[in-house]
Structure formats: C-alpha cells, structure tokens
Amino acid sequence: MENVRIGISRGAIFYTFLALVIGLLVGTVDALFGRGLLFITEIRDAHPLYFLPFLALAGLVIVYTYQHFGKESQKGMGLIFEAGNKGRKDIPKRLVPLIIFSTWLSHLFGASVGREGVAVQIGATIGHTLGGKLASKEAQKVLLITGMAAGFAGLFQTPIAATFFAIEILMVGKIEYIALFPALVASYVASTTSHALGLEKFSFAVNTDLNLDAITLLKLLVVALCFGLVGRLFAQGLSFMKSYMMLKLSNPYRRILIVGLMLSLGLIFIHLDRYAGLGTNLISMSFNGQPINAYDWILKLLFTVLSISAGFQGGEVTPLFAIGASLGTSLALLLGLPVGLIAAAGYVSVFSAATNSYFASIFIAAEVFGYGSVQYILPLVTIAYILNGNASIYAQGKLNLED
C-alpha cells in the first residue's frame, strides 16, 4: 500500500510539473494569437470595405496554403481526436503557425468564425509534443487533454470551465483525477500567463433581481426552450451544411470561392460588417444596452455556419456566445425580463446546447457573470442541455482514457 501511495505521489508531482510547463507555453502563444486577432479586428472594423469584398480571395489563399504546406494539418481537430482515439503518434508542429495564419486571414477579411478551435489545437499540439517524449500511452493522453484545457483557458481566462470543457467535450469514459488535476493546473497557469501578457478577459456583472412568480417562471421556460432549440439548430445545421457542401462542391477551391463571394455580398449589404468576425460587437451591444435587432441571432448563425462549412478557419464558440446573447436580449425585451440576466443565460445556454456540454457551461456562467448568477442561469442551461438531442459541434470524436 505504501508503495502505491509513493507511486501516485510521484506521478502527481510529475504531471504537475509538466502541466506548469504546458500552461506557460500555451498561455504565451494564446496571448500572441489573441492580441493579434484583436488588432486585426480593429483594422477590419475601421476599414470594412477594404477587406470584405476580397473574402473569397483570402479563402483561396487559405486553401492553397493548406494544400501545399499543410499536409495533414488541414484536418484540424480531426488530428487531435486521431491522436487520442487511434494512437496517432504525431501532430504536425506546422499546424500551429498554419492555424494562426489562416484564422487571422479569415478574420481580417470578415469570415464569421471564432477562435477557440485555434487555441485548443495550439494547446493539443504542445501537450502532445511533450507527451510524445514519454513511453506511457496514458501520459500521452493526459498531456493531450491538459494542453487542450490550457488552450481554452489561455484564450477565455476561465480556467475551471476550461478544465471541464476538456473533460466533457474531448474525453469519454471515467473522469480520472490523473487527467483532471493537471488540466486544472495548466488552465490556471495559461490563464494567468495570457492575462499578464495583455490579453483581457470578458466579464459582466448581471443584475439578478428577478421576481419568480408563476408568469415569470413560464416566461423563463419559453426562453430556455428557445435557447436549447437554437443550440441544437446550430450543431445540426453545421453538420448538414458541411456534408452538403462536400457533396455539391467537392473541390475546396471552388467551394470557398463561391461561398466566399456570397458571404462578401451579405456582409457588405446587410448591416455593413455587423456579422463579420467573432461577434464580440453583438455581445457588447447585448450587455451595454445598445440596439439589438430581433433577427441578429439568426443572421449571425447563418453567416457562421456558411463560413465554417466553406473552409474558413477559427472556431464556433465565440459566435455561439454572440448568438446566445443577442437571442437572449431579444427574448428579454419581448417578454419583459431583465435583459442582462437573460442575455447571460443565452450566452451560456446556446453554447451548452450546441456543444453538448453541461458543467463547462455552468462554470462559464460563474467565471464570466459571477457566481451569484448561477442559481438563475442553471435551470435554463439544464433545459437547453436536455433539448440538444445529443447533437454537438464536436461530434467527430472523443478521447478515451480507458483505451
């Protein structure tokens, strides 16, 4: 028994040391990527007509870059799942500069995409590279998951949510403390590092003054149902559109050219630049009392699904936050509910339904909107999560520590 305890203790110390290293490295790269993305967004927002008309051309550059220099890097998250599920021995290190470059280019020219996919792939590559030096397959998977959690945490600076995000979304089977603890350590280190290097965290203190009478409870039920169905619509719509485009436009150059031209026209003529990029403008307007159109959420959803399906790089999470916040604002104004609280609930609940995550979503609410908001947001997240029908934007695969 004593030998077992010593073995566990040494293993914990070893993983903790590696988690510190991973967190520091990933947090640094996340800060570089995140600050670069903010700078690029400012340039595009200041001169949208210099960039939006040329989105299709930017797409052609992205496809060409991956076709000629990316090798298997164009698989993106697929490589991560292959490494975890199928014992893939290498994740090409070129994936990191390629995904950063292609995401910056996508955002500069207005594609409606996110950023978490980049951060998770950065973290996974760093974690897997360190794990590749070890003989233990368990250690390789643990460090892969640790890197993923650090990537998410370094970008969004929500370390607890990032840890559960890695466990829920990217791993199935028994939740082992051997994976949970290093992921948590790396997440805190990555979050602290990126913040120290100038990457700011989004947070908003919501007003939780809500009279829970029968009518209000009925309204909240309607709101939660809407959040769940919209999250499910996003996940299933994205899956359908990816398959449809692969079938109808199998040539990646033709696909990104045609869809890029369509997106350019929409982004220019439908509220110039409003639905380009991350969607942080919609998030800001939702929480700062600025006008939100009742259709903002559906247009952001459509532009995001088309952008990702066409082949533009980034991710889905921040656009999901924007869709949820703008939908929540519209529903709150329609039903006479507190705008800030319902926008916050939408921000979290649509994310939960689209990613099929639960605990990560609850901790996002706590770390972004304050722990006092959780008692009001939790029931809405629960209903939205139940309604998603097991759909997920990460349905392509999961890691399993028990393999």
From TrEMBL:
<dbReference type="InterPro" id="IPR050368">
    <property type="entry name" value="ClC-type_chloride_channel"/>
</dbReference>
<feature type="transmembrane region" description="Helical">
    <location>
        <begin position="95"/>
        <end position="113"/>
    </location>
</feature>
<feature type="transmembrane region" description="Helical">
    <location>
        <begin position="217"/>
        <end position="235"/>
    </location>
</feature>
<feature type="transmembrane region" description="Helical">
    <location>
        <begin position="12"/>
        <end position="29"/>
    </location>
</feature>
<feature type="transmembrane region" description="Helical">
    <location>
        <begin position="256"/>
        <end position="272"/>
    </location>
</feature>
<feature type="transmembrane region" description="Helical">
    <location>
        <begin position="319"/>
        <end position="346"/>
    </location>
</feature>
<keyword id="KW-1133">Transmembrane helix</keyword>
<dbReference type="Pfam" id="PF00654">
    <property type="entry name" value="Voltage_CLC"/>
</dbReference>
<dbReference type="InterPro" id="IPR014743">
    <property type="entry name" value="Cl-channel_core"/>
</dbReference>
<protein>
    <submittedName>
        <fullName>Voltage-gated chloride channel family protein</fullName>
    </submittedName>
</protein>
<dbReference type="InterPro" id="IPR001807">
    <property type="entry name" value="ClC"/>
</dbReference>
<feature type="transmembrane region" description="Helical">
    <location>
        <begin position="358"/>
        <end position="387"/>
    </location>
</feature>
<keyword id="KW-0812">Transmembrane</keyword>
<feature type="transmembrane region" description="Helical">
    <location>
        <begin position="177"/>
        <end position="197"/>
    </location>
</feature>
<feature type="transmembrane region" description="Helical">
    <location>
        <begin position="142"/>
        <end position="165"/>
    </location>
</feature>
<feature type="transmembrane region" description="Helical">
    <location>
        <begin position="49"/>
        <end position="66"/>
    </location>
</feature>
<keyword id="KW-0472">Membrane</keyword>
